[in-house]
Specification:
The protein is α/β, with parallel strands linked by helices and 161 residues long. The protein is built from six helices and five strands; from the N terminus they run βαβαβαβαβαα. The protein has a three-stranded parallel sheet, with helices on both faces. A two-stranded parallel sheet has the order 1-2. The longest helix is centred in the middle third of the chain and has 13 residues.
């Protein structure tokens, strides 16, 4: 029986972690694990809609937009049990100890067998269009073309520290 394919999407940060992980994947011969790097937004959404399960296993990040995007795309969801992820106030079934690989593996198996038990009701969170519309309304503009543009530099101003 083969292993479940795993795809990691995201661009490398300013550390060498991407290279270290890529080397480790190759060294171990993990043919079921692919690191795709950064993808355009449409491709990310397509991947999320097709995902058997979305896993965010961060131990230190703040709230990730990718979690909200996964919810909106209907992906079954597993999140590390850190304060930033707990801010979503989802049922406990969605959370795992980020230092317990066996627990995560068990939850992934369950999510693959019962995806509906790990899918978050999309209506609990606004989609991006609703968020943008709310922001535009709050700042008093009818659409994003009405937002005054600010130039990045002004020759009459000097930076001070």
């Amino acid at each position: 029986m083969g292993s479940t394919p795993v795809t990691i999407v995201g661009g490398p940060d300013k550390t060498n972690e991407f290279d270290v992980l890529s080397s480790d994947i190759a060294r171990r011969g993990l043919v079921n694990l692919r690191m795709e790097g950064a993808l355009d937004r449409k491709e990310v959404y397509d991947r999320l809609r097709q995902a058997a399960v979305f896993v965010n296993c961060s131990i230190h990040e703040g709230m990730s937009n990718s979690v909200l995007e996964a919810i909106q795309c209907g992906a079954p969801l597993l999140l590390s049990d850190i304060d930033a992820n707990r801010d979503l106030q989802l049922p406990d079934v969605h959370y795992f100890d980020p230092n317990n690989g066996a627990q995560l593996a068990d939850l992934i198996k369950k999510a693959l067998l019962e995806p509906e038990s790990f899918t978050v009701n999309r209506s609990l969170f606004p989609d991006w269009d609703e968020v943008v519309e709310t922001i535009l309304t709050k700042i008093g503009v009818s659409n994003d073309n009405d937002i005054p543009r600010v130039r990045n530099c002004d020759s009459n101003k000097v930076a001070t520290a």
